[in-house]
Design goal:
By secondary structure, the protein is of the alpha/beta class. It has one domain: TIM Barrel (Alpha-Beta Barrel). The chain is 41% helix and 16% strand. It has seven helices and nine strands. The chain has helices at 2-19, 52-62, 80-88, 109-127, 143-151, 171-181, 197-210, and strands at residues 29-30, 39-47, 67-71, 92-95, 133-134, 155-157, 161-162, 187-191, 214-216. Strands 2, 3, 4, 7, 8 and 9 form a six-stranded parallel sheet that branches. Strands 1-6-5 form a three-stranded parallel sheet, with no helix packed on it. It is globular. The termini are far apart. The structure holds zinc ion. Zinc ion (ZN) binds at residues 45-46, 96, 100, 137.
Length: 220
């Protein structure tokens, strides 16, 4: 009985360690910027998207806000100008793997390194500069990802506030969720590939400002 309980506890821990980027077990991830100032950081995963990303960039520009875009490498071909625009307008670009494959966390060491490097190179070719910011697909971490991050000297960025914006929640609900969880240095996870991404971003920025916060720029 005790052994079964211990085994269950170990399994639960291993699950948490892999599936919560905040666990810090395998990868040391920045999940909140240490500051007492009322500033938050916007991050977007899974772009670039030829339709949605330009609208998201327009909203950011209108609000004079900066963000970090964790791009999927395989989506960059044909969208190089969008990456160039992100960089030119003062946003950060990070690596979100080349394939974003469901099986990414299970890749062997060589394959994983190659996948991450390929994304890093695609960003480099599009923008002319190298990024070391990295967000693992699905926020999953494990020993292989940990080794790859060390090997490539990447800075892993997690999040403080997950908006679950891909799960079909409405914009007002997401803005409320963010308002409740706001705190100095919070990193907010959003996506720039959804039809409602731009409109939602506007609501998020307004909610952040109403609470007296500013939008900051993550440093490399
Ligand atoms: Zn993703």
């Amino acid at each position: 009985m005790i052994i079964a309980l211990a085994a269950a506890a170990i399994l639960a821990f291993l699950f948490y360690a892999s599936y919560s980027i905040k666990s810090q077990v395998y990868v040391k991830a920045l999940c909140r910027v240490k500051t007492a100032e009322k500033v938050v950081y916007l991050t977007f995963d899974d772009g670039p998207d030829a339709e949605q990303t330009p609208q998201v960039l327009d909203v950011l520009k209108r609000n004079n806000a900066k963000a970090t875009f964790f791009c999927i490498g395989s989506r960059i071909a044909g969208n190089e100008a969008l990456l160039k625009r992100m960089a030119d307008e003062g946003h950060q670009i990070g690596i979100h793997s080349f394939s974003h494959a469901n099986g990414f966390p299970l890749f062997g060491r060589g394959r994983m390194l190659a996948d991450i490097r390929r994304c890093q190179q695609a960003i480099e070719q599009a923008t002319g500069s190298t990024t070391t910011l990295f967000r693992p697909p699905f926020g999953v971490t494990n020993p292989t990802i940990g080794k790859a991050v060390k090997n490539l000297n990447l800075k892993t960025i997690g999040w403080t506030i997950r908006t679950y914006d891909t799960n079909g929640a409405n914009n007002a609900k997401i803005a409320r969720r963010i308002s409740r969880q706001l705190r100095p240095g919070a990193i907010i996870l959003l996506h720039d590939r959804l039809p409602q991404s731009a409109e939602r971003l506007q609501m998020v920025i307004e909610a952040v400002k109403v609470a007296g916060y500013e939008v900051g720029r993550l440093e490399n």
